[in-house]
Amino acid sequence: MYYLVMLAIVATITWFNWGLVHAAPRSISLYLSPVFSRVAGTGLLLFGVFTGCFAAYAIHSVPGVIQGFIQAFAGLWFLLSASVGQRGSYQDEQMLKRLFLMIGILEATVLTIAFVDEPRLLAALSLLLVTGGFWVTTNFMAYLDRGR
Hints:
Blueprint: H1 2-23, H2 28-31, H3 34-57, H4 62-81, H5 90-113, H6 119-137, H7 140-144
Helix pairs in contact: 1-4, 3-4, 3-5, 5-6
């Protein structure tokens, strides 16, 4: 039951962040300076991912991983708030799909690492994370949308 609640919390947080990114008003880019958005977003994103990975690798604390994800999502929102005026374009939608797919791969890997103690399996999971990130950064939508 603990695993189901944990997965439901992470899925809900990710879904809410997807909605927040798409529902941000266009005027937010006028109020927040791009420099502030980049600095605050990068700082929160990096610190959140670092604390989530530390909680998974070192102390195997799932609440710590979830807290790191929340902080990383706040940083991601700040980073994407500078380009909120471009929402709705095809290129922006493709970028957001790839970004959230990469975040999903990162979440799955970090949550799995929180429950694994075997060093070889940890190395395999890290390699799968790198391979998944490489696959996402290539133009995978061209392979999925053939024939349309």
